[in-house]
Design brief:
The complex is a heterodimer of chains A (about 120) and B (about 210).
Chain A: H1 2-7, E1 17-21, H2 23-31, E2 35-38, H3 47-59, E3 64-68, H4 69-74, H5 76-83, E4 90-94, H6 103-116
Chain B: H1 9-71, H2 74-80, E1 86-97, E2 100-111, H3 124-207
Antiparallel strand pairs in B: 1-2
Classes of the chains: A alpha/beta (about 120), B mainly alpha (about 210).
């Protein structure tokens, strides 16, 4: 566990808001007072390691956490399982600087369809 | 699942009471569901617009950061941005929509110091990039708040709908059929009792004619 934490850029909580993403995306948010965590998928790495790292960040007492689409995709099930029935953190998916796939919109669409039994988007 | 009760008047009374309660609960939950759906539709539009707007703004911010990175190297950049220029604090309040508690955030953006990095040794592109990023902040937090609201409402609508359906299609029909069965049994008992008395009367009359 301590090994994992050391690979995450900062482990102390300064702000109530955090961003998880790749270097290029995160750097701008750091300037405006968000806590930032740089996670990048290495070649051939087990996705469950990445999921564990993300969950360990979610465990910290942030109010709002932004995560890039690509990282969210890597560990979607684990994240949703962890967040179920927890009021905080509020996780919001943002596009990263390099990829935009509208994942946030699609997952919201699914949620709405399940709640209302039809598409309203 | 069938309701099993003994066919007595006492049980019949209790069943009727339960049915009345079930109807009342069903009506209340149905009203709650309708209101939740109404609330939901009012925020879903604002969510859609906000999401689009934030993504556009973020893209602008990303591209301005790319510009800044193109004129400085990574080390310079990480040195310049080692200290944040702003401090963001969230004031949280709870809004109550049909007993769903929804957090509402008030964002306070505070400039810690005007210049955490030297303006001379950094290009002006960095200033522009930070500026565009700081314009996104309040919208970004607003987006999280609205998105969270949509999620919470959707979950509550789902739960309420299940409850309404359980009452409407399972609980109420079962109670009604149980009431029917019990009252039929009681009527039957009454009739057989009556017939028995009539028979006894006949026998008594036959055995000692006046």
């Amino acid at each position: 566990m301590s090994n994992e934490n050391s690979s995450i850029s900062s482990s102390t909580i300064l702000s109530q808001v955090a961003v998880i993403g790749d270097q290029d995306t995160v750097v701008g948010f750091k300037a405006i007072g968000f806590d930032t965590f740089i996670l990048e998928k290495k070649e051939g790495e087990d996705p469950s390691i990445m999921a564990n790292k993300i969950i360990s960040i979610l465990r910290k007492s942030y109010k709002i956490i932004y995560i890039t689409e690509s990282l969210y995709m890597l560990a979607e099930n684990e994240i949703e399982q962890y967040l179920a029935n927890k009021p905080y953190p509020i996780l919001t998916i943002v596009p990263s600087s390099s990829s935009q796939k509208n994942i946030a919109f699609d997952s919201m669409k699914k949620l709405v369809e399940r709640a209302l039994g039809g598409s309203f988007f | 699942m069938n309701i099993k009760v003994t066919a007595t008047r006492m049980q019949l009374m209790q069943l009727k009471k339960r049915l009345k309660l079930a109807y009342k609960g069903h009506k209340l939950l149905k009203d709650k569901q309708d209101q939740l759906v109404r609330e939901f539709f009012t925020i879903i539009d604002s969510y859609k617009n906000l999401r689009k707007q934030v993504e556009k703004e973020l893209n602008k911010a990303y591209s301005s950061m790319v510009l800044a990175r193109s004129v400085m190297n990574d080390l310079e950049l990480s040195n310049a941005l080692f200290l944040p220029t702003k401090k963001i604090s969230l004031n949280e309040k709870l809004k109550n929509v049909m007993s769903v508690r929804i957090p509402i955030f008030k964002v306070d953006i505070e400039n810690i110091s005007e210049q955490p990095y030297s303006k001379i040794s950094t290009p002006c592109e960095l200033d522009i990039a930070i500026d565009t990023f700081s314009q996104v902040v309040s919208d970004l937090i607003n987006l999280s708040q609205v998105e969270n609201e949509v999620k919470l409402l959707a979950k509550e609508i789902e739960v309420t709908r299940r409850r309404v359906n359980a009452l409407e299609y399972i609980m109420i029909p079962e109670l009604e059929s149980a009431i029917k069965i019990v009252s039929m049994k009681i009527n039957e008992l009454e009739r057989s009792n009556l017939v028995r008395i009539m028979k006894i009367k006949d026998i008594v009359r036959k055995s000692n004619p006046q």
